[in-house]
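Exercise 7. Predict the structure of Nucleotidyltransferase domain-containing protein from Occultella glacieicola.
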Amino acid sequence: MFTTEYRDGLAELLRERARSDPRVVGAALVGSAATGRQDRWSDIDLALQIADGVDPDGVAEEWTAWMRAEQDVADTLDVRGAGTLFRVFLLANSLQVDLSFWRHDDFRATEPGFRVLFGTPNPATEPNLPDPAGLIAMAWLHALHSRSAVARGRLWQATIMLDGLRERLVSLACLRHGLNPHQGRGVDQLPTAELDALTATRPSAVEQQELRRAHNAALAALAAEATRHDRAHAERLAPALRALAG
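Solution. The predicted structure, encoded as tokens:
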């Protein structure tokens, strides 16, 4: 397990490397370190603005080679969003290091928590929030497969489908309360009554009767969420959700 001293030392080393790399013309802290919420479990999240005319992927490869030479890198994961490469490093001591390589004209705050270290970012954009209608549709799709999996005796598949349904319920609830709806980041800040309703959607065992109970609780929660977001949409869905009850 990494220590906070190790993490903070590596974070400072990365910031120094950014300042000394002529291809990097801006840098910003992202996430908990940018908002003062960093704790024992926080990772390193550094956004880099690459000079105009320089290929960010080339810079990423050189930084990756340096990370592998200087740190004990267990694995990496690449995620791309809006043309930006987010390279996630998993170190052997379990520290996560997120380095993002932004084209010059794309470098900007896209969510709360973006503290500029140097350089000039472009104007910030609004956070990319999921569409409630899309979340509701994915929820009922998971409910369809949950019902059929339970009926067929495919209990682990049913469990996975219920997990997907619950994930959309969490996102819908977080959207209503102005919380981060992505990957459960805001769920622990929901009111106790709403968390209690979500608890009822979790099966206590991979067993047909218990999965059916959790499935029906999740359908009730979906009907309630749909009503809170769009009453007309909820009324159209109501007959189908009743038919999905097991």
